[in-house]
Specification:
Shape: elongated
Order of helices and strands: EEHEEEEEHHH
Strand order of the largest sheet: 2-3-4-5-6
Radius of gyration: 22 Å
Strand content: 25-35%
Helix content: 10-25%
Number of strands: 7
Largest sheet: 5 strands, mixed
Structural class: alpha+beta
Distance between the termini: 51 Å
Amino acid sequence: MRMPHEFSRPFEIAELTSTELPFAIAANAAECRALARRLDLLALDRLEAEGRVSAGAGGVVRVRGVLRARATQRCVVTLEPVPAELEVPFERTFVRGGATQRLLHLDVEQLDLEPLVGDLLDLGELVTEELALALDPYPRADGAEAVLDAFGVRGDDEPPPADGPFAVLRERFGREG
């Protein structure tokens, strides 16, 4: 049995005609708390999205929109709260049922087709997935660099030490970094 998503907003594909249909969704406080747990956030104070759903030839369904969120992540260095304000445009393309077998040619637009099973598209879960992708995978609080320096961790833009373990290889093959 499939568990319902924390932020579910089903959209019936049967409602689509040859025109686009607008949507506007927002997570309530309980849904935000549940999503914060799922995405390992300290807090999710706001999540909303608006956009349009359109149908195309060959069973293609396209969702375009923008999500807005206010989240608090945990710093990967100090574990302190790191606030994030997000406004992220997104576009997803789905294909219904076995329609992929009817597509006769492949173009750039069809490379990222996702299968759509049934007659429902969960816009809430789609927005949740887009939020997860938009979040900083390595959030850093102010002062995190000083903590790293105190432990002798060098940054990505710093050259490696001249007497480090790979110095002989750099000298032999003439490479930097």
